[in-house]
Each structure stands twice: as C-alpha cells, then as structure tokens.
TrEMBL record, chain A:
Keywords carried by this UniProt record: ATP-binding, Nucleotide-binding, Transport
PANTHER family registered for this protein in UniProt: AMINO ACID ABC TRANSPORTER ATP-BINDING PROTEIN (PTHR45772:SF7), CONSERVED COMPONENT OF ABC TRANSPORTER FOR NATURAL AMINO ACIDS-RELATED (PTHR45772)
Name used for this protein in its record: Amino acid/amide ABC transporter ATP-binding protein 1 (HAAT family)
Origin species: Hoeflea marina
InterPro entries, alphabetized: AAA+_ATPase, ABC_AA/LPS_Transport, ABC_transporter-like_ATP-bd, P-loop_NTPase
UniProt GO cellular component terms: plasma membrane
Top-rank taxon, per record: Bacteria
UniProtKB/TrEMBL annotation, chain B:
PANTHER family for the chain: ABC TRANSPORTER ATP-BINDING PROTEIN, HIGH-AFFINITY BRANCHED-CHAIN AMINO ACID TRANSPORT SYSTEM PERMEASE
Mode of membrane association: Multi-pass membrane protein
Location(s) in or outside the cell: Cell membrane
Organism this protein belongs to: Hoeflea marina
Protein name: Amino acid/amide ABC transporter membrane protein 2 (HAAT family)
Length: 237, 362
C-alpha cells in the first residue's frame, strides 16, 4: 500500500526525518509511537504531501508520489486527520463532509449526500449535522476529523493523535469506530500516545525518535524492548 | 423506528424564495426608472450600483477567498485607463471598449497574483497596495492620455456613443442626460449580473471549496481541494469585474486623472467600509453596507474631514461589537437569509422531531 525509502527532511540544522524506511501492506494497521518532537506529525505531512521531503522516495500502491501535491494524493487514496483539529470552522459539520466527499472523490454534491449522511451516522455526528463546526466540543471536533477523512473514501487512513485529550468512555467509542473502519479493509497508520487505545487496533508498531525509525514489529515485542522502554522512561504511558 | 425519508441537501428557504421575487421586481423597476426619475437620482443610483458592484467583488476576494487586498484601485484605474486609451488612441466606441477595461485588469491581475500570492495575510495586503502604486506612477508617465494631470473623453466619442441617440429620442432628453441613462443601465446590468453570478458560484461545489480554503488551507488540500486554483480563480474574477466597473465609472465621469482613478480611499477604503459594516462573507452585507454608506455620505456631506472620521469610528465600532456586520447581527437574531448558501442535511434520522434541526445558523 505505502512504502517509504530513506525519506529525509530537515528544517535548517534540525533533522525531523532521517532516512526513514518502512512499508505498510494493504489492509494492515500500523501504530507510530515516539516522544514529543520525534517527528511523527512531520512524517504524516511528508506522506500526505503537506511537506516535501529533501531526499528519498514515497510510493503509494506502487506509484511514485514523492513530488505529488497534497490534493492529488487525496484523490489517489490518502485520507488524514490533523493532530490539532482543523475543521472548516464557518461551515457546518455536514458541509465539512460535503467538501471532502465531493472534492476527495471528484463527484457532484448530489451524488455524495447519502454517503456523507452515512458517515455522520457511523461517527455519531448525525444529530450535529447542521451545527457550525467552529462551535463543536473537542470530542466532536475529533470525530469530525475522522468523519471528514472518511468522506474522501480513503484506502489509506492517517490518524494523528485522534484519542488525545478524550475521557476513557469517549476514547472507547472512538476506538470502536476505528476498529470497524479497519475491519472494512482500510489500511491505517495511527500516531498515538494513548497506548492501550492504539494497541487494541494495530497489528504492528513503529517507534520513532529524533526522526529515525528505532524499531518496528509486533506491539508485544516492541513494548518489551529495552531501548523503547528507555526512550519512554518518564513519559506517560 | 418508523421508515424514515431519504436524506437530502437543501439550500433554499421561504425567505429566499420571496427574496428572489422581490429582487426580480426590483431589477425591473431599476431598469424602467429613467422614464420618470430625475437626472440627479439616476446619477446617485449609478454611484450606489457601481460601489455595490465593487463591494461585491472585494467581498468575493476577502470574505470568500480570504484574500484581503487593499490594492483593488489598481484594477479600477487600469480598467478606466484602458477605456480612455482605446477610445482616444484607437477611436473605438466607449461601450464595447468597456470589455477591454475588464481584460486589461485581468492581464494586470496575472503578474500581481504571481508576486502577491507568495505572501500571506498583512504582507499580501501591503503588496497589493504597493503594486497599485507602481501602476499609478507608471500610468502617470503615459503622455498621450494626459500624464499626471489626466484627460477627458473627446466630445466626438461621447456624442455618438452606441445607444445614446436612441435614448435621446426615447426619453426626449439631451445627449449628456442620455449618457447618464446609458451608464446607469449598464450599472444595473453589471450589478445584477455580479450578484447573480456570485450567488450561482457559491451554490456550486466551488463555493464550498472556497469556504474551505478560506477557513484552513492545509485541511482543504488534504481533502482534495486545489487551493491554489481557487485563489487564482477568485483573484482573476474579482480583477475582471473590478476593471469593468472602473471603466464604467469613468465612462460616466468622462474625465480621468491617475490620482483619482488609482485612489486607495475611493476604490478600496470605502469599499472595505461598505463590506465590513454590512457584513463580510455574505451577499446581503454589501447591499446593507452601500445603503448605510450612501446615507452617511449624504448626511455628512457638508462636514469635510469630519465625514471621514465618523466613517472610521463607525467602522471600528461595528468591527468591535458586530464583527459579522449589520446583516450578520440581523441574520443571527432572525435566522433570515435572503441568499442562502448553507447546505442543510434533512430527512433520514434528522426527520425525527426531537432533533434540533432548526438551530445554529452561521
């Protein structure tokens, strides 16, 4: 589905991605963990095309997308949520999804009404469909991030700390939704600090530190590794 | 649960249907008005309609495209000078030459956007102003249209302008009054076409994309919206319309100078005032704004610079206490929208009466 080959990016002297190489097979859910500032969100921006890499190659379904702009990558099948929710704040929840569905799938508005309504039902936002998104609570903003990404009908879904800041109950309902999406065959890459939420969905974990891939493997092995524990020492697990 | 109706996306409201009929009636009334109105009223309405058109184009730029330009006078000026240049130098009739006003502004907009789009926010705004000043200074060097002091449309061109003979016989007026009526009719057509075109644009899916780009560009790109193309689209459309309006304004004035045609106060500051006090990002806003602006101008005409200070104070007060303008204030209280663009999801689970469907307007 997705393959990164020695992808690097620096901001001046600060290296935020250092020869990152990994691949995600179709249908897999991969979790990405690492301390704050490890370059996790930057990695997402490189995959989605919001940032251009200095070196390396990114392939999506066998196609080289390294130089492809973000809007084209969305059409090619990448959907994402933002760590800090970025709703189209003066549009309603429903209109947010209509933009994503209509442009992300390049279809007319009339053709995507039903699928938008269906996603709103699945993500628990249907009662708020006609609410202006700028006035939503944090949980609903996170749900909207997920719903809007789904509206583009992605084959690869990137979730950036979508469970952060939620209560236990809210987190559980979000995990259920994500599990259902994954069960539907969508490939997922999920950055998350809430490890129990992450580990209940993903099949593999990748650990990032200082822009480098430290380890990648089954969640059980990764969590048991000494190096990972050292990196996470003192960090809220 | 009982069988529910299918989902649908609706934009029309009862108020908008009434508004559509009223607007149609108003447009017809404006077109037949020269049959009984005085020349003074026609001139005032010409001013109102052309300022309204400029305001709608600035509103498209800033309110829908998020592009706060303070250099729209570049397009008014270049449009007006394109008209004078082609009439004086090439001897073209002023009415068809208006089209060249729009095209000249469009051509100027391409390099302007190329440079200004590299900058964001306040830097973008300043850069548009700087470019407008550069154009003003360059045009002031153009000796064959009067250089820095300006020039007038030759009597030979204005006297035999298209349609004026017919208007003279139709209303039994002199040629100067006939020119005013012609300019007024063109202003009515331009204003109606602008508002109609803008409303059409906002109801297509491009309207949604525009709002998305304005609210957050990164997220817009991530859902497949070509943000760069949307910005170019609104900038070029606004420039074309602003240039056309500029040409029309100076066709009616028949006299031009670089300082007047490229005036930041007349063609940008007043226009921003109209949009901001009326309500930015709505079609209704500039309509309310121009009425307030015209009323203030008439009331305060004798007070010189006090007039500008009062305008400034009112502008500041509205921005502080009603950031969505007078129309926003009214619309928030009543829920009335004359040109609704909101897509409302209805039917399905929402057709249940306990769902708060009628809450939350813009």
């Amino acid at each position: 589905m997705l393959a990164l080959d020695t992808v690097s990016k620096s901001f001046g002297a600060l290296t935020v991605a250092d020869g990152v190489t990994f691949a995600v097979p179709r249908g897999q859910a991969l979790g990405i963990i690492g301390p704050n500032g490890a370059g996790k969100s930057t990695l997402f921006n490189l995959i989605t095309g919001n940032l251009a890499p200095d070196a390396g190659r990114i392939e999506l379904m066998g196609r080289d997308v390294t130089r492809m702009p973000a809007m084209r990558r969305c059409l090619a099948g990448i959907g994402r949520s933002f760590q800090i929710p970025q709703p189209f704040s003066r549009l309603t929840v429903f209109e947010n999804l209509m933009v994503a569905a209509s442009f992300g799938r390049d279809m007319s508005e009339a053709a995507v009404v039903d699928s938008c309504a269906g996603i709103l039902e699945r993500t628990g936002l249907i009662a708020k469909a006609n609410t202006v998104s700028g006035s939503l609570s944090l949980l609903d903003r996170k749900r909207l991030e997920l719903a809007r990404a789904l509206a583009t009908d992605p084959q690869l879904l990137l979730l950036d700390e979508i469970a952060g800041g939620l209560t236990e109950g809210e987190c559980r309902s979000l995990v259920e939704t994500i599990s259902a999406i994954h069960a539907g065959g969508v490939t997922i890459i999920w950055i998350e600090h809430v490890l129990h939420a992450l580990n209940s969905v993903v099949e593999r974990l990748l650990v990032l530190n200082f822009g480098r891939v430290i380890a990648i493997g089954a969640p059980g092995e990764i969590m048991a590794s000494r190096e990972v524990q050292e990196i996470y020492l003192g960090i809220d697990i | 649960m009982a069988h529910s109706s299918p989902y649908a996306s609706l934009t029309r409201t009862r108020a908008s249907r009434v508004a559509g009929l009223v607007a149609l009636g108003l447009a017809v009334l404006l077109l037949v008005l020269p049959a009984f109105a005085s020349r003074g009223l026609i001139q005032d309405l010409f001013f109102i309609l052309t300022m309204l058109t400029l305001a709608q184009f600035w509103n498209l730029l800033a309110g829908y495209g998020g592009l706060v330009s303070i250099g729209q006078q570049a397009f008014v000026g270049i449009g007006a000078y394109a008209l004078f240049g082609t009439v004086i130098l090439a001897g073209i009739d002023p009415v068809p030459a208006l089209l060249l006003s729009g095209l000249a502004a469009l051509l100027l907009a391409i390099p302007t956007a190329y440079f200004a789009f590299r900058l964001q926010g306040a830097y973008f705004a300043i850069s548009t102003w700087v470019i407008a000043e550069v154009v003003r200074l360059s045009v002031a060097q153009w000796k064959s249209v009067g250089g820095g002091t300006g020039t007038s449309l030759p009597r030979s061109a204005t006297g035999s302008m298209w349609f004026t003979q017919a208007i003279e016989t139709l209303f039994d007026v002199r040629s100067a009054a006939a020119r005013d009526i012609l300019a007024y009719w063109l202003a009515v057509l331009l204003a109606v076409a602008t508002i109609g075109g803008l409303y059409w644009l906002l109801r297509t899916r491009r309207g949604l994309a525009l709002a998305a780009v304005r609210d957050t560009m990164d997220a817009a790109r991530s859902v497949g919206v070509d943000a760069g193309r949307m910005k170019w689209l609104v900038f070029l459309v606004s420039a074309f319309g602003t240039g056309l309006t500029g040409g029309l304004i100076y066709l009616q004035k028949a006299r031009i100078s670089p300082d007047a045609a490229f005036s930041v106060t007349d063609w940008t500051a007043y226009v921003i005032f109209i949009v901001v006090i009326g309500g930015i990002g709505t079609i209704e806003g500039p309509i309310i704004g121009i009425i307030v602006f015209y009323a203030l101008q008439t009331l305060l005409a004798d007070y010189g610079s006090w007039y500008l200070m009062v305008l400034g104070l009112i502008g500041i007060a509205v921005m502080l206490f009603a950031p969505r303008g007078l129309w926003g204030l009214f619309s928030d209280r009543t829920g009335i929208e004359l040109f609704p663009v909101r897509r409302r999801l209805t039917g399905g689970l929402l057709s249940h009466p306990h769902h708060p469907e009628s809450k939350d307007h813009g």
